[in-house]
Write a structure and sequence with these properties.
48% helix, binds magnesium ion, 4-stranded parallel β-sheet, binds guanosine-5'-triphosphate, Rossmann fold
Length: 370
Amino acid sequence: MVLTYGKSQTEKAFLVGLAHGSARRADVAESLEELARLAESAGAKVVGKRVQSRPRPDAALFIGKGLVEEIRLALAECQGNCVIFDDPLSAAQQRNLEEAIGVKVIDRNILILDIFATRARTAAARLQVELAQLEYTLPRLAGAWVHFSKQYGGIGAKGPGETQLEIDRRRVRIKIEYLKKKLEKLGVQRATQRKARQRLFKVALVGYTNAGKSTLFNVLTKSEVGTANQLFTTLDSTTRAMSAGYPGQVVFSDTVGFIHKLPHQLVESFKSTLEEVALADLLLQVIDCSDPGWEKSSAQTRKVLIEIGAGDIPYLLVYNKVDSNPEFDPVPVSGVPSFLISATKKTGIAALKAEIVARAATAANFVDYP
Ligand SMILES: Nc1nc2c(ncn2[C@@H]2O[C@H](COP(=O)(O)OP(=O)(O)OP(=O)(O)O)[C@@H](O)[C@H]2O)c(=O)[nH]1
Ligand SMILES: [Mg+2]
């Protein structure tokens, strides 16, 4: 298996983005900045970055031969030991690049899956991440073994490599089925817990990773879930009642953050966690207004929300970290109230709370709450 990234604290990584097709170079460069933050969140040090423009990816190496050699030399100079591509690589490309550069080569999806794997704490999160990893790996097993079968089995011959590939694929499929069954069981438990909350007004905090969702969750519910200045601190959803004034009537869920190019295997396997969001009565879309790319991140959040069936749920725009950007003045979105807050400085919270309580009070399923 290739999923070994992120276990060591001493990775020195070179990042590569490819602007091809209709992709704009500036957008690729921006995405590479985010990849750098992901790499740093995984404990790696970024030692170099390059964006290459090409009409289309190279079938064998993804990027041009010249750049491959340039990266090899750059890494040799600083004892770098890893290259991370911003786009998914085929198994063959990954292998060819590893041979040509002589270090580990991974892509953004493997990096994200690995961060999730190291951060997953609860049984459900662990199962979900493992499932996503296996589903990402399964189609890639083929490429890894073509090499082996060519070397030992010969063209056309049903060599030992192929047999091994079949065994491996079967093993992975059996494991995938097993994980899915276990997750289903957990899903049933979750559904029972949800049923108990049916009469409550459910508010879910959503938004880009590192926007401050958990910090705001803690302020609103007087809780102490983990927060940190890194990507994907939260993987499991936590649900708590609002603290003062309205005991037991309004519940909040803190959830996993979103990001550009979230591997679809992750969205798929985190669906049960994300159902928390899809079943909410109100969403607080938390936006980091100190992030220059906030507009794009916000659009990405809306995209994922639609993908998980939460696109029609009423929402509030909560611009957080206003202490870091006091001049911030967003263009209003029609029909969507917005709030400028600082979760760490606890400013703007009262107005936000008042709006949530007002919404809860008028919600139909809330009127006859005992
Ligand atoms: N300056 C400032 N920093 C904040 C504010 N709110 C949160 N932060 C910081 O932003 C970082 C991320 O906060 P979290 O609450 O962990 O963010 P999150 O959205 O839950 O992130 P993930 O769980 O990783 O998706 C932490 O270092 C917080 O201290 C704020 O109002 N102002
Ligand atoms: Mg969090």
